[in-house]
Each structure stands twice: as structure tokens, then as C-alpha cells.
Design a protein that fits this description.
With about 250 residues, this protein is α/β, with parallel strands linked by helices. Helix content is about 40%, strand content about 15%. The chain is built from 9 helices and 8 strands. Helix 1 packs antiparallel against helix 2 and helix 3 runs parallel beside helix 4. The radius of gyration is 17 Å and the shape is globular. The termini are close together. The structure holds 6-AZA uridine 5'-monophosphate. 6-AZA uridine 5'-monophosphate binds next to strand 8 and helix 8.
Length: about 250
């Protein structure tokens, strides 16, 4: 089975965020998303400055930032995103009814709607629970990387029906292939480790491009825990791009 190139996906992309992601990937020759799982504003901004030029998006868990302050955290993060041309992906994994998700998305201290380009959401609340994410792209959680995850093949099949039919959805997070109409985001990528002691399971960039035809790799500890996050980001960027190019050539 063949995979589409980023150029081919760009031709068919409907959503402005899908287009932006694919254009950025082609411009930077990168399919890397760095996961900034750090807990202070200073670490977050320092990481964004270092890895920014090499990634297409920075993925945040904004609720783990202990000194979060919109002016001190988000305003400078947006400046860095503009400077280094990356998108902001908030990995909130919404999992509630539409009304509550809307409140979590627009209110509280984080005001995700004001700054995220795209967000992750479970689809367990059903089709209409995704209606509130009008101004962003949604990445649906289809399958999870952790050991014993309950995202069985029948769950994934149902999740994909919601994802494919909802206009706000640009793609999915999964450890399996998903239909070409959706962009595939794959976390659980690490070159040095095969997992952690909390159930995480890792694959290499090579594996996820070849076997899953992924579009974008998400790397957390492989980059931010590294002694030199910028060099690590460049390594994952190059590994990811080469793996993508190889996965295209398998088609010829
Ligand atoms: N993530 C996964 N697996 C999933 C979904 N999301 O690992 O199925 C997220 C985690 C973390 C990042 O919440 O932010 O991707 C992976 O980090 P790591 O590379 O340090 O394991």
C-alpha cells in the first residue's frame, strides 16, 4: 500500500491548519513536533527558542506549567512561534460533553482558544462534543501509545468515523495507520529507549514512517531531557525527514 507525499496531501487539504502544517513541513524539511513537557515558563520558552527553527509545531501541556501567567507565558511563546515559524499544539485531550469542553477551551486561566493553532481531543464524547473547536484544528485521539490502552481496534474504528466526518478534525493521534484524508500524528517516538517505567512504549522514526505511514512524529523526552535539546531536535528532524523520504520511495 502506498502513501501520499506532503505535496499530494496539501493539494487535498481542506482545513487552514492542515495546509499550514504541510506547508511548514515542506519549507523546513521537517516533520518533527517537539513535546514541551516542562513545568516552568522559563524552561518552556528556553526550549521553544532552541528547537523552534527545527520543528513544525511545539506541543504543550499548558496545565503543567506551575508559574503560568498569560502575559509571561503565552505572549512570549507566541512571539517565538512567529519568529521561528512553528505552530502551537495544545495537547489538552479534551474528554467531556460539548458544553464543558467549550468552557475548558475558552475559559479558566489558560484561554486555549486565544493562542493554540490546534488541540488534541478524545472523541469519546461523540461528534457534537467537537463542535466548539471552531477556530482551531482538532487532532482526535484514536489510539494511545501506552501499554494496555483501551483504544482497541473496534474503538479506533468508531473514533475514526467521528474524526473523518467532523469538519474541525484535521487528523488523529494513533499507533496504527489511519485513512489518508487525516493527518497522522505519532507520539511514542524515541531513538534511545524502548519505553519508560510508566507504560510508555517507544518506536523509532524509521518504524513509524515505514509501518504506520505517519505524517508527523512527536518527541518529548528524547529532546527536552537531552543534554543538548537543539542538537537532539536536529537529529530527530533529520531522522524523521529521511524516514519520510524512504517511506515514499517504497512506493515506486
Ligand atoms: N502522548 C503520548 N501517547 C499518546 C498520546 N499522547 O505519549 O498516545 C503524549 C504525552 C507526552 C508525549 O502526553 O506529552 O506525547 C510523549 O512524550 P515522551 O516522548 O517524553 O514519552
Amino acid at each position: 500500500k502506498t502513501r501520499s507525499s506532503y505535496e499530494q496531501k496539501l493539494e487535498h487539504a481542506q482545513h487552514s491548519v492542515s495546509k499550514k502544517l504541510l506547508e511548514t513541513a515542506l519549507a523546513k524539511k521537517s516533520n518533527l513536533i517537539a513535546s514541551a513537557d516542562v513545568t516552568t515558563t522559563q524552561e518552556l520558552l528556553a526550549l521553544a527558542e532552541k528547537v523552534g527553527p527545527h520543528v513544525i509545531a511545539l506541543k504543550t501541556h499548558i496545565d503543567i506549567i506551575s508559574d503560568f501567567d498569560y502575559e509571561k507565558t503565552i505572549v512570549p511563546l507566541k512571539v517565538l512561534a512567529e519568529k521561528h515559524q512553528f505552530l502551537l499544539m495544545e495537547d489538552r485531550k479534551f474528554a467531556d460533553i460539548g458544553n464543558t469542553q467549550e468552557l475548558q477551551f475558552t475559559s479558566g486561566v489558560f484561554k486555549i482558544t486565544d493562542w493554540a493553532d490546534f488541540v488534541t481531543s478524545q472523541v469519546i464524547g461523540g461528534f457534537e462534543s467537537l463542535d466548539c473547536f471552531k477556530n482551531v484544528g482538532v487532532v482526535a485521539i484514536v489510539g494511545m501509545s501506552s501499554k494496555g490502552a483501551l483504544t482497541t481496534s473496534s474503538y479506533r474504528e468508531e473514533a475514526l468515523k467521528v474524526a473523518l466526518s467532523h469538519p474541525n478534525v484535521i487528523g488523529g493521534v494513533s499507533q496504527n495507520q489511519i485513512p489518508e484524508e487525516l493527518l497522522l500524528f505519532t507520539p511514542g517516538v524515541n531513538l534511545a529507549d524502548s519505553g519508560d517505567d510508566k507504560g510508555q512504549q517507544y518506536n523509532t522514526p524509521e518504524h513509524v514512517f515505514k509501518m504506520l505511514h505517519t505524517d508527523f512524529i512527536i518527541v518529548g523526552r528524547g529532546i527536552y531531557k537531552s543534554e543538548d535539546p537543539e542538537t537532539a531536535a536536529i537529529t530527530y528532524k533529520n531522522e524523521g525527514w529521511n524516514a519520510y523520504v524512504n517511506s515514499l520511495q517504497k512506493n515506486v
